[in-house]
Amino acid sequence: MSAEELRQERPDLDTLLREDRDYQSAYDRKVSQALATARANWERDRQGEEDRLRQTLETEMQETLEQERQVLAGQRQDFDRRLRQVAVGEALQQRGLDARFAPWITGESDEDSAQRVEAFTGLFQQALSQAVAGRMRGEAAPREPDRPRELTREQVRGMSPREINRNWEQISGLLRETQ
């Protein structure tokens, strides 16, 4: 038998399936089984991809949420610091000191700030007392008081009206003495 005769004796797949119902059933079962396996694999791959995507989204959301929390925590700390600074400024003003010292005195907590205000007030008062005492002792020579010079009648006659007005107290005293 030649190759051509073998080909003629062998029917093609479509012919076999049409002629024999058992072949058709077996073929349908195999195709259905292949489809079911492909569908199961596709579902498993799709579910795995959904799980990976869900995990990625959850991770990104958690990171974003954590970043936002950190930003809010920083803003809250800044706000709390500003509130403490205002409270320190008010405490300084109550003690008769300038509130502009508040940024340098404000501490990390309310208690720390209160301690710093007390310490600063004491140091400031001490420095002020020392400066006043030093000036009172004469470290800096006191200025000579401005004493007006004694005027005579001749000097008054040579003055302009404006000069007379400027020196009126002394001139009026001179006029009282001579009368």
User: How much of the polypeptide forms β-strand, as a percent range?
Assistant: under 5%
End-to-end CA span: 173 Å
Q: What's the number of extended β-strand segments?
A: 0
Helix content: over 70%
The whole-number mean of residue pLDDT values reads 84
Measured on Cα atoms, how large is the radius of gyration?
Answer: 53 Å
Description:
It contains eight helices and no strands. Helix 3 packs parallel to helix 5 (110-137). It is rod-shaped and about 170 Å long. It starts with a helix and ends with a helix. The longest helix has 74 residues, at 21-94. The chain has helices at 3-9, 13-19, 21-94, 102-105, 110-137, 153-157, 161-166, 168-178. 6% of the residues are buried. It is an all-alpha fold.
